[in-house]
Design goal:
Shape: flat
Oligomer: single chain
Order of helices and strands: HEEEEEEEEEEEEEE
Amino acid sequence: MKRTVLTVLVLALVLAATATMVWAADPIKRDAKGNETGWESSASSCTTIQDGTLEASDGSLIEVGYDSWGYNYQAHMFNGLYCDSYRDAAWCQPYEDVSLIMKWDDGWLANTDCDGDDLLDRHFGFPSYIGSGAWLTNHQSGQYELDGKTCTWTYFVKIVAAPTDAVKVGDVWYNADAVEVGPAIWDDFAIIQQVENDPCAGIHGLQYLSPDHPGLGNW
């Protein structure tokens, strides 16, 4: 089974875009170096999940906690089976035995609606994901049979939105200092870490680490 294919399919789900408005103010709290440290409170002008009026992509009302599919929008998490992330769509049945955990930040998919469309905001305050600080982690696991042996595999990837001053050369994003951020994915994003374990295929541990994020090597 090709884990890279599964990763792309999962990202397609999360990046199913909803319309957003461009806001002048940056709602993300940042330190002196521009790193994201938090999210500005705007409860007076934003609708929360607790208000009971926000909708998921399938039109169902979002509630606090995990829904029947495995999404916990309040906690920025999905924990379930791969096909459940797609509402058990017919096309993904070949991957129905794959387990999936996703985590993300407010920049990727907020747990509030501040633009008034009754949907959770994406890259709120920014015209696109670039510069928003958005990130997603994707952890997959499963098993397959090989020569009468059950093989267990795991795959982890983290992607981040490219910085505002980043430049994409070919299929790779580079920061303003020409340091590699990571392979480009979905235009606005870069892969910064991949970890894969599949003993039957002789694959073990860290497969890629962004030179721009060396601290992630201490996993």
